[in-house]
Amino acid sequence: MNILGDIQPGVLGATFGSPQFMENGLNQRFLFTLPQIEDFPDREVEAMDAGIVADWCSVVKQIYKMDLTGWELIGFSPESDALYTEYFNQLQRKKTEVSKTTGDGYLLSVYSKLQIQAQRLAGIVHLMWLINSPQSYNYRQVSAEDMEYTIRCMNYFEKSAITVYERICGGDLGGPLKGTTQAEIIRDFHEKVGITNLTKFAEGISKTKGYISPLLKGCKRKLPGK
Question: What pTM value is reported for the model?
Fold first, then answer.
């Protein structure tokens, strides 16, 4: 099942930063896009090129009309398989580096999920190509061109995933606590130092009391008034 949606950057942490989402692999399954908006131009009345609109409408209609009954599995051509192997191994080396340095389980999961998502996206890219090339409708192999485009997309999604992770964690993945989840940091701080004012503490780390309070359940040190 594919889900497409949008979210404001300012609520990324509150939405995806819960211990459950950080640790159960849900976040890492998303392919994020993060437009870098620097300028806010005035509104201009400008229509999209009619040819682009027509092509897009045609693609969407063809997707609904496609009858995949009796289709065999879509595989990789030898050339695309070699490209995917190279991409897969690059991520393996990144996982090895993370394991030797920070041991960051979140990043390890990101790289593992990207390896899987690349295969799925390659299949989607291949189907899009078939829609635009009806004469090749019975071709059942992802081409090298399909895979090259897929890998370019995955490189973008990798950068976006790391940016989202940084924003969830407050923009710093490089300190001595790197590899520790945000929830663990908060619980550890409370156990060792003690949070005396939950409201001010939450404001200080740009969170809400509703986000912090559940994280401290089960801690030996109790909150004031508890």
Answer: 0.67
The Cα–Cα gap between 21 and 185 comes to 16
pLDDT tens by residue, 129-167: 877 776 665 678 899 999 999 999 999 999 999 989 988
pLDDT the model gives residue 138: 65
Tell me whether strands 75-76 and 141-142 are parallel, antiparallel or unpaired. Answer: parallel
**H helix intervals, the chain:** 12-16, 19-23, 50-65, 78-101, 105-132, 144-168, 182-192, 198-204, 209-215
SS (H, E, C) 71-113: CCCCEECHHHHHHHHHHHHHHHHHHHHHHHHCCCHHHHHHHHH
Cα distances (angstroms) measured from residue 97 to each of 113, 129, 147, 192, 212: 17, 36, 25, 31, 32
**Which tokens in the block code for residue 220?**
């030996």
The conformational region for residue 206 under phi > 0 = left, psi -120 to 50 = alpha, else beta, is: left
Terminal alpha carbon distance of the chain: 43
Residues in CB range of 186: below 8 A, 6 or more apart: 205, 212, 215, 216
**Phi, psi at 225, each rounded to 5°:** 85, -5
In whole numbers, what is the pLDDT of the chain averaged over residues? Answer: 84
Please choose, from the candidates 82, 90, 93, the residue with its C-alpha nearest in 3D space to the C-alpha of residue 147. 82
Tokens of 51: 């040819």
